[in-house]
UniProtKB/TrEMBL annotation:
Compositionally biased tracts (Acidic residues): 1-10
Coiled coil: none
Annotated spans, Disordered: 1-94
SUPFAM superfamilies, per the entry: P-loop containing nucleoside triphosphate hydrolases
Pfam families: CMS1
This protein's name: Protein CMSS1 isoform X1
Low complexity compositional bias, start-end: 14-24
Superkingdom of origin: Eukaryota
GO cellular component terms listed in the entry, alphabetical order: 90S preribosome; nucleus
InterPro entries named among the record's database cross-references: Cms1, P-loop_NTPase
Natural source organism: Mustela putorius furo
Length: 278
């Protein structure tokens, strides 16, 4: 009878109610002592992660990084030029640049032939002049000279600078000197060569202000005749945002010397053309 009751009780139990001690310990929450031992584990893990999240360790500068930084600083010429006082350009500066430029492909005799006489140089700007005051000093008879000029495709005075923006600045700053003179912009920005050639053919121009590259191209295409030219002025002392002068820029320097070989040097030697450094 007891066995029958035991079997009946066993059969009436819901499924899953009877389990082994191991199963009941896992499903029912387990031993309290086990919970106390495992509970602090996540708290410790959070504490170990906390410094990594709050504090960033900066990488130490290596010798290679320091060397690269020093090399980059050495390449900046603005730091050197900013600390040095500007010195006005002299005819000797132009002569030296010419010698350095041509020394690689000219013989000693040819280099001597490139030397310009002192008589072809005008007084250089001592950094106290405006453009108008400097031009008045080197050309006091400008009004009479321009009145006698009636040749087209030519100018009496050329002012050479490094950029179109600088050319516009120079044109605005020479108002007191130019008076009623006809001035022409001789640079490439927004102006085609053929347009400038046509303008030079149509009217008499007294003053030309522009870049050596465009002036050289006009001479090459026959749009500008250099023979009537009396004054050639370099915008020598002005510095751009990087503190570079016109002749410090390799591309500009190359174009200047190529222009000089297109008849300017021979005109200087014949003393019909004067050079000025503003």
């Amino acid at each position: 009878m007891a066995d029958d009751l035991g079997d009946e009780w066993w059969e009436n139990q819901p499924a899953g109610a009877a389990s082994s001690p191991e199963a009941s310990g896992g499903e029912g929450g387990g031993d309290p002592e086990m919970q106390q031992e495992t509970a602090p584990v996540p708290a410790l893990s959070k504490k170990t992660k906390q410094p990594k999240e709050c504090f960033l360790i900066q990488p130490k500068e290596t010798k290679e990084d320091a060397t690269k930084t020093r090399k980059r600083r050495k390449k900046k010429i603005t730091d050197v030029l900013a600390k040095s006082e500007p010195k006005p350009g002299t005819p000797e500066d132009l002569q030296k640049l010419m010698k350095d430029y041509y020394s690689s492909n000219r013989s000693v005799i040819e280099l001597e032939e490139l030397n310009l006489p002192d008589s072809c140089f005008l007084k250089a700007n001592d950094l106290t002049h405006s453009l108008s005051s400097y031009l008045k000093e080197i050309c006091p008879k400008w009004v009479k000279l321009r009145k006698n000029h009636n040749e087209k495709k030519s100018v009496l005075m050329l002012i050479i600078c490094s950029s179109a923006v600088r050319a516009l600045e120079l044109i605005r700053s020479m108002t007191a000197f130019r008076g009623d003179s006809k001035v022409m912009k001789l640079f490439a920005k927004h102006i085609k060569v053929q347009e400038q050639v046509k303008l030079l053919e149509k009217r008499v121009v007294h003053l030309g202000v522009g870049t050596p590259g465009r002036i050289k191209e006009l001479v090459k295409q026959g749009g500008l005749n250099l023979n009537p030219l009396k004054f050639l002025v370099f915008d020598w002392n002005w510095r751009d945002q990087k503190l570079r002068r016109m002749m410090d820029i390799p591309e500009i320097r190359k174009e200047v010397f190529e222009l000089l070989e297109m008849g300017v040097l021979s005109l200087c030697k014949s003393e019909s053309l004067k050079l000025g450094l503003f």
